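Show me a record, fold above all:
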Amino acid sequence: MYDLLIRRGTVIDPSQGLHAVNDVAVENGRIARVASSISIEEASRVIDVRGKVVTPGLIDVHTHIYDGVNWMGVEPDIGGVRAGVTTMVDAGSAGCDTFGGFPRHIVPNNRTEIICFLHICRTGLATRPDIFSTASIDLEQTVRVASENRGLIAGIKARMVSPALEIMGMEMPRLAKQAAKDAGVKLMVHIGDTEKRYDPNVIRQLLPIMEEGDIVTHFFTANPGGVLDADGKLVPEAREANDRGVWFDTAHGQMNFSFDVGERILDQGITPHCISTDLTLPGRLHRVHSMTEMMSRFLAMGLTIDQVVTMSTLNPAKAVGLENRLGTLGVGRQADISVLEVRNGDWVVYDVVGGSRRVDRAVVPVLAVKRGEVFEANWGPRPWGWEPDRA
Protein backbone atom coordinates (compact mmCIF):
# COMPACT_ATOMS: atom_id res chain seq x y z
CA MET A 1 0.00 0.00 0.00
CA TYR A 2 1.23 3.51 -0.86
CA ASP A 3 1.98 5.90 2.01
CA LEU A 4 0.55 8.91 0.18
CA LEU A 5 -1.55 9.61 -2.89
CA ILE A 6 -1.64 13.13 -4.38
CA ARG A 7 -4.78 12.89 -6.45
CA ARG A 8 -6.24 14.62 -9.51
CA GLY A 9 -3.84 17.52 -9.83
CA THR A 10 -2.45 18.84 -13.09
CA VAL A 11 1.02 17.33 -13.07
CA ILE A 12 3.67 19.45 -14.78
CA ASP A 13 6.97 17.60 -14.87
CA PRO A 14 9.36 18.90 -17.54
CA SER A 15 11.78 16.03 -16.90
CA GLN A 16 9.19 13.62 -18.33
CA GLY A 17 7.31 15.96 -20.65
CA LEU A 18 4.18 15.68 -18.49
CA HIS A 19 1.38 18.25 -18.44
CA ALA A 20 -1.86 16.46 -17.66
CA VAL A 21 -4.18 15.49 -14.83
CA ASN A 22 -2.51 12.62 -12.99
CA ASP A 23 -2.24 10.92 -9.63
CA VAL A 24 1.11 10.68 -7.86
CA ALA A 25 1.80 7.89 -5.38
CA VAL A 26 4.56 7.95 -2.77
CA GLU A 27 6.05 5.05 -0.84
CA ASN A 28 8.99 5.03 1.57
CA GLY A 29 9.93 8.60 0.71
CA ARG A 30 10.13 7.97 -3.04
CA ILE A 31 7.91 8.45 -6.06
CA ALA A 32 6.21 5.08 -6.54
CA ARG A 33 3.87 5.74 -9.47
CA VAL A 34 2.48 8.50 -11.68
CA ALA A 35 -0.67 7.55 -13.57
CA SER A 36 -3.95 8.96 -14.84
CA SER A 37 -5.86 7.05 -12.18
CA ILE A 38 -4.71 5.30 -9.00
CA SER A 39 -7.30 3.82 -6.66
CA ILE A 40 -7.65 5.61 -3.33
CA GLU A 41 -7.89 2.17 -1.73
CA GLU A 42 -4.22 1.64 -2.58
CA ALA A 43 -3.02 4.46 -0.28
CA SER A 44 -3.10 4.99 3.48
CA ARG A 45 -3.36 8.77 3.00
CA VAL A 46 -5.05 10.56 0.13
CA ILE A 47 -4.90 14.31 -0.62
CA ASP A 48 -7.24 15.53 -3.35
CA VAL A 49 -5.70 18.51 -5.18
CA ARG A 50 -8.01 18.81 -8.16
CA GLY A 51 -7.75 22.24 -9.75
CA LYS A 52 -4.18 22.61 -8.44
CA VAL A 53 -0.80 22.19 -10.15
CA VAL A 54 1.54 19.42 -9.02
CA THR A 55 5.25 19.81 -9.83
CA PRO A 56 8.55 18.33 -8.74
CA GLY A 57 9.65 20.03 -5.53
CA LEU A 58 10.56 23.67 -6.15
CA ILE A 59 14.27 24.49 -5.78
CA ASP A 60 15.35 28.03 -4.83
CA VAL A 61 18.90 28.12 -6.18
CA HIS A 62 19.96 31.42 -4.55
CA THR A 63 19.05 32.18 -0.93
CA HIS A 64 20.66 33.28 2.33
CA ILE A 65 19.55 31.01 5.17
CA TYR A 66 22.34 31.10 7.75
CA ASP A 67 19.67 31.83 10.34
CA GLY A 68 20.99 33.26 13.61
CA VAL A 69 24.60 33.28 12.41
CA ASN A 70 24.78 36.29 10.12
CA TRP A 71 22.64 39.38 9.86
CA MET A 72 20.62 38.43 6.78
CA GLY A 73 19.85 34.75 7.30
CA VAL A 74 16.24 33.61 6.93
CA GLU A 75 14.97 30.53 8.77
CA PRO A 76 15.05 27.95 5.96
CA ASP A 77 11.65 26.37 6.54
CA ILE A 78 9.88 29.74 6.27
CA GLY A 79 11.03 30.16 2.68
CA GLY A 80 11.20 26.41 2.18
CA VAL A 81 8.65 23.70 2.93
CA ARG A 82 6.26 26.23 4.52
CA ALA A 83 6.26 28.17 1.26
CA GLY A 84 5.94 25.20 -1.10
CA VAL A 85 9.72 24.93 -1.69
CA THR A 86 11.51 21.65 -0.95
CA THR A 87 15.18 22.59 -1.49
CA MET A 88 17.05 25.84 -0.81
CA VAL A 89 20.57 26.67 -1.96
CA ASP A 90 22.50 29.07 0.26
CA ALA A 91 24.60 31.28 -2.02
CA GLY A 92 27.70 32.09 -0.02
CA SER A 93 26.49 33.11 3.44
CA ALA A 94 29.43 31.21 4.92
CA GLY A 95 33.11 31.03 4.08
CA CYS A 96 35.71 28.48 5.12
CA ASP A 97 36.14 30.05 8.59
CA THR A 98 32.41 30.24 9.37
CA PHE A 99 30.86 27.23 7.61
CA GLY A 100 30.72 24.89 10.62
CA GLY A 101 27.32 26.13 11.79
CA PHE A 102 25.57 24.76 8.71
CA PRO A 103 26.09 21.04 9.38
CA ARG A 104 25.87 21.47 13.16
CA HIS A 105 22.88 23.79 13.55
CA ILE A 106 21.07 24.74 10.33
CA VAL A 107 20.71 21.43 8.49
CA PRO A 108 19.62 19.31 11.51
CA ASN A 109 16.98 21.82 12.62
CA ASN A 110 15.10 22.28 9.35
CA ARG A 111 13.05 19.96 7.18
CA THR A 112 13.84 21.82 3.97
CA GLU A 113 16.83 20.32 2.17
CA ILE A 114 19.82 22.67 2.20
CA ILE A 115 22.65 22.88 -0.34
CA CYS A 116 25.48 25.41 0.04
CA PHE A 117 27.87 27.42 -2.08
CA LEU A 118 30.93 28.36 -0.03
CA HIS A 119 31.95 32.02 -0.24
CA ILE A 120 35.52 32.62 -1.44
CA CYS A 121 35.73 35.12 1.42
CA ARG A 122 36.83 33.35 4.62
CA THR A 123 34.05 34.90 6.71
CA GLY A 124 31.33 34.76 4.07
CA LEU A 125 28.70 37.43 4.61
CA ALA A 126 29.32 37.73 8.34
CA THR A 127 31.41 40.81 7.59
CA ARG A 128 30.34 43.89 5.65
CA PRO A 129 31.96 44.33 3.22
CA ASP A 130 32.78 40.67 2.80
CA ILE A 131 36.23 41.06 1.20
CA PHE A 132 38.16 44.01 2.61
CA SER A 133 41.77 42.88 2.02
CA THR A 134 43.72 40.19 0.22
CA ALA A 135 43.82 38.33 3.54
CA SER A 136 40.05 37.83 3.26
CA ILE A 137 40.74 34.82 1.01
CA ASP A 138 42.41 31.60 2.14
CA LEU A 139 42.52 29.41 -0.95
CA GLU A 140 43.90 26.29 0.73
CA GLN A 141 41.37 26.34 3.57
CA THR A 142 38.50 27.04 1.16
CA VAL A 143 39.41 24.01 -0.94
CA ARG A 144 39.74 21.84 2.17
CA VAL A 145 36.32 22.79 3.58
CA ALA A 146 34.60 22.38 0.19
CA SER A 147 36.26 19.01 -0.38
CA GLU A 148 35.38 17.69 3.08
CA ASN A 149 31.72 18.68 2.74
CA ARG A 150 30.94 17.56 -0.79
CA GLY A 151 27.49 16.24 0.16
CA LEU A 152 26.50 19.68 1.42
CA ILE A 153 28.68 22.09 -0.59
CA ALA A 154 27.93 22.22 -4.33
CA GLY A 155 30.24 25.06 -5.28
CA ILE A 156 32.19 28.24 -4.58
CA LYS A 157 30.61 31.71 -4.62
CA ALA A 158 32.23 35.00 -5.65
CA ARG A 159 30.71 38.49 -5.76
CA MET A 160 31.76 40.96 -8.46
CA VAL A 161 31.27 44.01 -6.24
CA SER A 162 33.24 46.85 -4.71
CA PRO A 163 35.44 47.03 -2.70
CA ALA A 164 36.53 43.46 -3.53
CA LEU A 165 37.11 44.38 -7.17
CA GLU A 166 38.97 47.57 -6.24
CA ILE A 167 41.22 45.62 -3.86
CA MET A 168 41.84 42.49 -5.96
CA GLY A 169 40.40 43.03 -9.43
CA MET A 170 40.00 39.86 -11.50
CA GLU A 171 42.32 37.99 -9.15
CA MET A 172 39.32 37.50 -6.84
CA PRO A 173 37.06 35.55 -9.27
CA ARG A 174 40.10 33.73 -10.64
CA LEU A 175 40.92 32.49 -7.13
CA ALA A 176 37.29 31.42 -6.71
CA LYS A 177 37.48 29.52 -9.98
CA GLN A 178 40.73 27.89 -8.86
CA ALA A 179 39.12 26.84 -5.58
CA ALA A 180 36.14 25.36 -7.44
CA LYS A 181 38.41 23.42 -9.79
CA ASP A 182 40.63 22.12 -7.01
CA ALA A 183 37.61 21.00 -4.97
CA GLY A 184 35.82 19.54 -8.00
CA VAL A 185 32.73 21.73 -7.60
CA LYS A 186 30.95 24.48 -9.51
CA LEU A 187 31.51 28.25 -9.48
CA MET A 188 28.66 30.71 -8.88
CA VAL A 189 29.35 34.39 -9.54
CA HIS A 190 27.22 37.37 -8.52
CA ILE A 191 27.27 40.01 -11.27
CA GLY A 192 26.28 43.67 -10.87
CA ASP A 193 28.26 46.05 -8.66
CA THR A 194 25.72 47.37 -6.16
CA GLU A 195 28.18 50.08 -5.11
CA LYS A 196 28.36 51.21 -8.77
CA ARG A 197 32.07 51.99 -8.49
CA TYR A 198 33.88 49.47 -10.70
CA ASP A 199 34.30 49.37 -14.47
CA PRO A 200 31.12 47.77 -15.91
CA ASN A 201 33.21 46.13 -18.65
CA VAL A 202 34.48 43.69 -16.01
CA ILE A 203 31.71 41.34 -17.20
CA ARG A 204 33.65 40.85 -20.43
CA GLN A 205 36.67 39.65 -18.46
CA LEU A 206 34.64 37.48 -16.10
CA LEU A 207 32.50 35.43 -18.47
CA PRO A 208 35.39 33.82 -20.40
CA ILE A 209 36.73 32.17 -17.21
CA MET A 210 33.38 30.49 -16.56
CA GLU A 211 33.01 26.95 -17.84
CA GLU A 212 30.17 24.56 -18.56
CA GLY A 213 28.16 24.04 -15.37
CA ASP A 214 29.23 27.28 -13.69
CA ILE A 215 26.45 29.69 -12.68
CA VAL A 216 26.02 33.42 -13.33
CA THR A 217 23.54 34.81 -10.81
CA HIS A 218 21.63 38.15 -10.95
CA PHE A 219 21.30 37.77 -14.72
CA PHE A 220 18.66 40.56 -14.84
CA THR A 221 20.64 43.09 -12.77
CA ALA A 222 20.51 46.74 -13.78
CA ASN A 223 23.72 47.48 -11.86
CA PRO A 224 27.05 48.09 -13.64
CA GLY A 225 28.74 44.86 -14.63
CA GLY A 226 25.63 43.15 -15.97
CA VAL A 227 25.35 41.42 -19.34
CA LEU A 228 24.01 44.45 -21.26
CA ASP A 229 26.33 47.11 -22.63
CA ALA A 230 25.68 50.87 -22.55
CA ASP A 231 23.43 50.53 -25.61
CA GLY A 232 21.31 47.78 -24.09
CA LYS A 233 22.89 45.05 -26.21
CA LEU A 234 24.09 41.72 -24.88
CA VAL A 235 27.84 41.58 -24.58
CA PRO A 236 29.08 38.88 -26.98
CA GLU A 237 30.69 37.00 -24.10
CA ALA A 238 27.22 36.36 -22.62
CA ARG A 239 26.04 34.58 -25.75
CA GLU A 240 29.29 32.61 -25.88
CA ALA A 241 28.89 31.58 -22.22
CA ASN A 242 25.32 30.48 -22.87
CA ASP A 243 26.43 28.42 -25.87
CA ARG A 244 29.09 26.54 -23.87
CA GLY A 245 26.74 25.58 -21.04
CA VAL A 246 27.06 28.28 -18.38
CA TRP A 247 23.87 28.52 -16.32
CA PHE A 248 22.05 31.87 -15.97
CA ASP A 249 20.05 32.50 -12.78
CA THR A 250 17.90 35.59 -12.15
CA ALA A 251 18.12 35.96 -8.31
CA HIS A 252 15.83 38.90 -7.50
CA GLY A 253 17.12 40.11 -4.12
CA GLN A 254 17.03 43.69 -2.88
CA MET A 255 19.03 45.36 -5.67
CA ASN A 256 19.49 43.10 -8.69
CA PHE A 257 16.32 42.50 -10.70
CA SER A 258 14.94 44.72 -13.45
CA PHE A 259 11.96 43.91 -15.67
CA ASP A 260 13.36 46.19 -18.37
CA VAL A 261 16.78 44.52 -18.37
CA GLY A 262 15.15 41.09 -18.34
CA GLU A 263 12.91 41.86 -21.28
CA ARG A 264 15.83 43.25 -23.28
CA ILE A 265 17.73 40.02 -22.65
CA LEU A 266 14.73 37.87 -23.58
CA ASP A 267 14.19 39.91 -26.75
CA GLN A 268 17.79 39.17 -27.76
CA GLY A 269 17.20 35.46 -27.60
CA ILE A 270 18.53 34.24 -24.26
CA THR A 271 16.18 32.85 -21.63
CA PRO A 272 17.51 32.38 -18.09
CA HIS A 273 17.81 28.81 -16.92
CA CYS A 274 16.81 29.35 -13.29
CA ILE A 275 14.51 31.53 -11.20
CA SER A 276 15.51 32.32 -7.61
CA THR A 277 14.76 34.75 -4.81
CA ASP A 278 18.09 35.78 -3.23
CA LEU A 279 16.01 35.56 -0.07
CA THR A 280 17.26 37.57 2.93
CA LEU A 281 15.67 38.95 6.08
CA PRO A 282 15.63 42.57 4.86
CA GLY A 283 14.65 41.48 1.36
CA ARG A 284 11.77 39.41 2.69
CA LEU A 285 10.39 42.46 4.47
CA HIS A 286 10.51 44.76 1.47
CA ARG A 287 11.05 42.93 -1.83
CA VAL A 288 10.29 39.27 -2.38
CA HIS A 289 9.11 36.52 -0.08
CA SER A 290 9.32 33.22 -1.93
CA MET A 291 9.74 31.27 -5.13
CA THR A 292 6.05 31.44 -5.96
CA GLU A 293 6.26 35.25 -6.11
CA MET A 294 9.18 34.91 -8.51
CA MET A 295 7.23 32.45 -10.63
CA SER A 296 4.39 34.98 -10.81
CA ARG A 297 6.79 37.70 -11.97
CA PHE A 298 7.90 35.53 -14.86
CA LEU A 299 4.33 34.76 -15.86
CA ALA A 300 3.88 38.55 -15.96
CA MET A 301 6.85 38.73 -18.36
CA GLY A 302 5.11 36.40 -20.79
CA LEU A 303 6.71 33.05 -20.02
CA THR A 304 4.51 29.97 -19.95
CA ILE A 305 3.75 27.98 -16.82
CA ASP A 306 5.76 25.07 -18.27
CA GLN A 307 8.79 27.32 -18.78
CA VAL A 308 8.47 28.72 -15.27
CA VAL A 309 8.19 25.25 -13.72
CA THR A 310 11.28 24.11 -15.66
CA MET A 311 13.20 27.13 -14.34
CA SER A 312 12.13 26.27 -10.79
CA THR A 313 12.63 22.49 -10.74
CA LEU A 314 14.56 20.60 -13.42
CA ASN A 315 17.05 23.32 -14.34
CA PRO A 316 18.05 24.21 -10.75
CA ALA A 317 18.51 20.50 -10.00
CA LYS A 318 20.88 20.25 -12.95
CA ALA A 319 22.62 23.51 -12.03
CA VAL A 320 23.60 22.17 -8.60
CA GLY A 321 24.38 18.70 -9.94
CA LEU A 322 21.51 16.87 -8.22
CA GLU A 323 19.30 15.93 -11.16
CA ASN A 324 19.82 12.27 -10.25
CA ARG A 325 17.34 12.69 -7.39
CA LEU A 326 15.78 16.20 -7.48
CA GLY A 327 13.76 18.16 -10.02
CA THR A 328 11.68 15.21 -11.25
CA LEU A 329 8.69 13.05 -10.39
CA GLY A 330 10.34 10.04 -12.00
CA VAL A 331 9.53 6.72 -10.37
CA GLY A 332 12.12 5.78 -7.77
CA ARG A 333 13.31 9.35 -7.25
CA GLN A 334 13.13 11.25 -3.98
CA ALA A 335 9.51 12.20 -3.22
CA ASP A 336 9.85 15.99 -3.37
CA ILE A 337 6.60 17.50 -4.61
CA SER A 338 5.12 21.01 -4.69
CA VAL A 339 1.39 21.62 -4.96
CA LEU A 340 0.53 25.08 -6.24
CA GLU A 341 -2.51 27.08 -7.20
CA VAL A 342 -2.39 29.33 -10.26
CA ARG A 343 -4.95 31.92 -9.26
CA ASN A 344 -6.59 34.35 -11.65
CA GLY A 345 -6.83 37.98 -10.55
CA ASP A 346 -5.47 41.47 -11.14
CA TRP A 347 -2.32 42.58 -9.33
CA VAL A 348 0.79 44.67 -9.90
CA VAL A 349 4.26 43.26 -9.21
CA TYR A 350 7.45 45.29 -8.89
CA ASP A 351 11.16 44.96 -9.54
CA VAL A 352 13.91 46.66 -7.48
CA VAL A 353 14.27 49.79 -9.60
CA GLY A 354 10.65 50.93 -9.61
CA GLY A 355 9.49 48.99 -12.64
CA SER A 356 6.12 47.26 -12.51
CA ARG A 357 4.12 44.75 -14.48
CA ARG A 358 0.50 43.73 -14.31
CA VAL A 359 -0.08 40.08 -13.52
CA ASP A 360 -3.39 38.31 -14.04
CA ARG A 361 -2.14 34.96 -12.70
CA ALA A 362 -0.46 34.47 -9.35
CA VAL A 363 1.23 31.29 -8.18
CA VAL A 364 0.16 30.43 -4.63
CA PRO A 365 1.84 27.69 -2.54
CA VAL A 366 -0.55 25.06 -1.20
CA LEU A 367 1.69 22.35 0.23
CA ALA A 368 5.08 20.71 -0.08
CA VAL A 369 6.04 17.07 0.18
CA LYS A 370 9.65 16.52 1.25
CA ARG A 371 10.93 12.93 1.14
CA GLY A 372 7.30 11.86 1.48
CA GLU A 373 6.46 14.12 4.45
CA VAL A 374 3.64 16.62 3.92
CA PHE A 375 3.89 20.30 4.92
CA GLU A 376 1.08 22.80 4.51
CA ALA A 377 2.26 26.15 3.15
CA ASN A 378 0.87 28.14 6.08
CA TRP A 379 3.62 30.74 5.95
CA GLY A 380 3.82 31.12 2.22
CA PRO A 381 3.01 34.50 0.69
CA ARG A 382 -0.38 35.07 -0.82
CA PRO A 383 -1.11 37.20 -3.89
CA TRP A 384 -3.47 39.49 -2.02
CA GLY A 385 -0.43 40.69 -0.09
CA TRP A 386 0.68 42.51 -3.23
CA GLU A 387 -0.52 45.95 -4.15
CA PRO A 388 -3.80 45.70 -6.09
CA ASP A 389 -4.25 47.46 -9.37
CA ARG A 390 -6.13 50.72 -8.76
CA ALA A 391 -6.33 51.93 -12.35
